[in-house]
Amino acid sequence: MEEKNILIVEDHELTRFGLKTTFESESFVKNVFEAENAQKAIDIVTNNKIDLIIMDLGLPNIDGIEATKKIRNKNKDVKIIILTSHNDEKEVLDSLKAGANSYCSKEIKPARLVEVVLSVLDGASWFDPKIADVVLKAATNTNDIGENIKKDYNLTTREVQILKLMTEGFGNSEIAKELVISVNTTKAHVANILQKLEVDDRLQAAIKALKNKIV
Ligand code: CA
Fold first, then answer.
1. Could you tell me the distance, in angstroms and rounded to a whole number, from the CA of residue 167 to the centre of ligand 1?
2. Cβ atoms of 94 and 59 closer than 8 Å
3. How far, in Å, from the CA of 159 to the mean position of ligand 1?
4. Does the domain spanning 147-211 belong to CATH 3.30.1390.20?
5. Distance 15 CA to ligand 1 centre (A)
6. pLDDT for the residue 150
7. Burial 133-148 (b: 16+ CB within 10 A, else e)
8. Distance 186 CA to ligand 1 centre (A)
9. Domain 4-138 has what CATH class?
10. How remote is the CA of residue 105 from the centroid of ligand 1, in Å?
11. Predicted confidence band at 138 (pLDDT cuts at 50, 70, 90)?
12. What are the structural domain ranges in the chain?
């Protein structure tokens, strides 16, 4: 994998330092950028090629959800992982709607967070199992994402198989390994799945799949 630039957005100095130290020692990381507030984060993303952001929610002035929205409007490619001590249902859903790729509890162990970062860089929409429950509960209770009708969307057996792995948080290379197919084939299947489900990203696909009981 090409070396990646990571940005840590966190106002708590000790937490920020801990995260920076964790990622600086990883061989896949090129540079670790730091921002103690949202405006600084937006400036860094504007002026540098950032591959992934670890975003705190409770920030002064502009909060993490607003910051995620602003960054996502300018940059569709950067991966955003929300790292927070709350797992309030509304906050989780607002973060995902704002364009975050993943949502993760601050209780996570550093080594596990590194795995999550790698999996998100690989295209997965990983989220904390504790939070996954919140998302799924909300997805089955509200009409925010997708319709509530059971449909099969004309998916092939292979596509359903891949979709199931996507709902379990598998990235492209993990899916490829699991099904013994190439990463390019996997990517092509995922693109077809997103198109058939009429969604923009893997997380919405996973929610729609679970909601419509496709997997
Ligand atoms: Ca904070």
1. 29
2. no
3. 40
4. no
5. 9
6. 56
7. ebbeebbeeeeebbee
8. 37
9. alpha beta
10. 13
11. low
12. 4-138, 147-211
